[in-house]
Known about the structure:
The chain is α+β, with helices and mostly antiparallel strands. The chain has nine helices and nine strands.
Amino acid sequence: MNSVNTRIAKDLWDSIASHFQFKEPARYLAHYTTATAATQILQTGQLWATDTATFDPRHVEGHRQLFAAEAVRLYRKTGPEPNAPFRKALSDQFSDPVLAPRFFAACLSVDTDSPHMWRTYGDDGNGVALIIDSQLVNRDLKVIAAPCIYAPSAQLDLFANLMERCDALSVSLPAEERAELLPHATALANMLLQAYKHLYLSPERECRYVYMEHDGQSYPRLDAPHPERRALPLVGAGTTSPFVCAVSGPRRTDEIDADFRERLCSAGYSNMPVTSSTVDMASLTASED
């Protein structure tokens, strides 16, 4: 990435960066999974991130259409000058990004003992939650820590901030540099889509480690254990592991937990604290509001 690209990318990122900061203390994040998968994660020090194109298409595509409609609305509201061509081009690019990036996301939660997350991701309460100290995560890992954004008003505000910065740059950049604006704005808008979810899913209180892969990236590519997954090395070389404890699911028994502790020993985590979920069993079968 040359200096022009870097400057444009930074200017655009600065317009939305504050919205990717956690609004509440979120040092500890939980990854809900099965006991078998948790053991594999601890043995490798890697958390697998999945290609978001394989997620429920209603989520990403619905918000992608929202972006396109908003870009057209801003174009019609402000008139043809000076940025209408750019807005129209940006709207068109949501279905075919110039940089053709792929996004991979590992899903976590700021809630370390959530009925919703146990039911949906924690093996229906039979699994475990690995607790990650975000301050100890590998500093060389090139991912964005993105708390999911559920409120439609916040989603539109975030996109409007990006559009305003694009408007300013499309006027101030020298003509020979403006061609760089569209691919970067498109990539960043698509990055936003990875953190947008529908309001009814807000009980998840989800956050994501999002990794972007494209042909022009300036950072190393991650290992691909599967065509639709990338391995996020959360444990850095010679550093303290960010996996600080585990929470045993509300349906687990003492006998099952004893087996999990043996697995921890084999993975090199014999001293890892394991606590029991305090979730009421009845809440696992309660319907969502």
